[in-house]
TrEMBL record:
It comes from the Eukaryota. GO terms for biological process: lipid metabolic process. This is Putative phospholipid:diacylglycerol acyltransferase 2. Pfam families: LCAT (PF02450). The lineage of its organism: Eukaryota, Viridiplantae, Streptophyta, Embryophyta, Tracheophyta. InterPro entries: LACT/PDAT_acylTrfase. Keywords: Acyltransferase, Transferase. GO terms for molecular function: O-acyltransferase activity.
């Protein structure tokens, strides 16, 4: 696991060259180009719907025309989370082997975010920060084509703190993907919003990660 600040890992991963199956080194922007192509191309391709009811919610991240509504992205941060992998070719016998596998011999320098062929970044142990917070940080922020009425979006991050003893069970300040459901601060935020408080009334945004800076680097027509 990386020993340096996870925010540095989120930046460093964008500068690392990735290896193609044949061992050829691509240019440093290879990974980002693949991320744009595979992860973001489908979203960027989406044309705005004329009516919310005509959009399939599982395919189009279009919000309804509800300017008084508020959107919250609530998630944990501060735990090394898998984001990318270094692969190598498998034996030539494709009938018996998957054609590629994670190269567990790939390690970065001491304190690097690369460990045994896996790149770690900030997240909740299951979901990287950029996946959890991008839509609230940029995709839905302001009057974008995915948020035509300009409803307010709020990011509330919960920094992981492991339980001090077994008496705490899975923790009251956990930011882990499932254990966050027992996070007292998260529960308080949910209850206050459900009781009618606005995002400003619960304290506005609470951000520990580099989600805003990372989101700005993603080129998406909004």
């Amino acid at each position: 696991m990386p020993s340096e600040p996870l925010s540095n890992c989120s930046t460093m991963i964008e500068k690392k060259p990735y290896f193609k199956p044949n061992g050829e080194k691509p240019n440093p922007n290879y990974y980002l180009s693949q991320l744009d192509r595979v992860t973001l191309s489908r979203m960027a391709y989406l044309a705005p719907c004329d009516k919310f009811d005509e959009c399939k919610p599982e395919e189009k991240p279009l919000l309804p025309n509800a300017p008084d509504m508020e959107i919250y992205c609530l998630y944990g941060v501060g735990i090394p989370t898998e984001r990318a992998y270094v692969y190598k070719s498998s034996p030539a016998d494709k009938c018996k082997h998957i054609p590629f596998r994670i190269d567990s011999s790939a390690d970065g320098d001491e304190g690097s975010c690369l460990n045994s062929g896996v790149y770690f970044v900030d997240g909740d142990e299951s979901v990287p920060v950029i996946s959890a917070g991008f839509m609230c940080a940029k995709g839905w922020r302001g009057g974008t084509r995915f948020n035509p009425s300009g409803m307010a979006t709020y990011i509330r991050e919960y920094k992981h703190k492991a339980p001090a003893s077994l008496l705490e069970g899975r923790g009251t300040e956990s930011g882990a993907h499932v254990d966050i459901m027992g996070n007292v601060a998260l529960i308080e935020d949910v209850l206050r919003v459900a009781a009618g408080s606005t995002g400003k009334e619960i304290g506005g945004e609470k951000i520990y990660s580099d989600i805003l800076a990372m989101s700005e680097k993603i080129n998406l027509q909004l």
